[in-house]
Amino acid sequence: MSIKRYGVEGGVGTGGQKLPFARAVEAGGWLRVSGQTPMTDGEVVEGGIIEQTRLAFDNCLAIMQEAGYGVEDVVHVTAVLTDARYFSSFNKVFAEIFGANPPARICSVQDLVVDCKVEVDVSCYRADRA
């Protein structure tokens, strides 16, 4: 089994800092996407929890697409919210993205090292790539 890393050439975080981790790693049919925040070009995009959740998931989906995975391949999501009051709005966006075939999930409330409202990561699986 080989391991393929996506984005090790240097993702960009807040303030233009080079990130010391891969955007995603693929091995044995699994794709693990690193936590994504509502950032564009290394800067957090302002907005409410709905806009920030959509952008965080859009960032995950873009990495998944680059690796050849789709939303139907997502088996687990980890979500971190900075305020428990965001839970209902987060769930609305989550349901829009995953529809009738939602993945397993954990959602917690914690402080984030980036000044935003949400961070998400996804785990995907494709048997044809195992």
TrEMBL record:
A Gene Ontology term for the protein's cellular component: cytosol
Residues that span the membrane, as ranges: none
Gene Ontology terms, MF aspect: deaminase activity
InterPro entries: RutC-like_sf, YjgF/YER057c/UK114
UniProt similarity note: Belongs to the RutC family.
Protein name: Enamine deaminase RidA, house cleaning of reactive enamine intermediates, YjgF/YER057c/UK114 family
